Amino acid sequence: MRIIGGKLKGLRLNPPTNLPVRPTTDLAKEALFNILYNQYDFEQIRVLDLFSGTGNISLEFASRGVNEVVAVDRDFGCFNYLKTVAKQYQLESIKPYKADVFKFLESEPEPFDLIFADPPYDLPQITEIALKVFERNLVKPEGYLIVEHPSMKKLDNHPSFKEQRKYGSSSFSFFNG
Length: 177
What we know:
Helix content: 25-40%
Order of helices and strands: HEHEHEHEHEEE
Number of helices: 5
Shape: globular
Number of domains: 1
């Protein structure tokens, strides 16, 4: 796992092997950030990273100058790892939370410019992520919710669904704010 852009470009991260994660591949992450880089001024946006795991995506956003990255994961090991790495590299913009994602969504009052969710692929409630986010108006009007999921799973039945991009066995589904 490495940071592919920004001030920490090239940094290799070696999270503990006992974390319950499946990090986004460098190839998929690079494709995602190429899409986002052309649509957002990273220094002007607020990002929410759901099921943040190792913080791979949060760290990438922070490296590229995002001022606030809220990272939510319920696993204590993941929370601790991201907190430690953010402190080590002085990434004050990362705000890690140890919490259940669905409970966090119920309590968060402020909308985000961009929400990225990378739930466990076997999570039965994957389709509920978009429902909860849009029910609570957590994406700003020009913003996106992006859900990473198995390519065979379809999330296109939500009214805010825009497109699905496939990267091997993983896909990103984009939803408009």
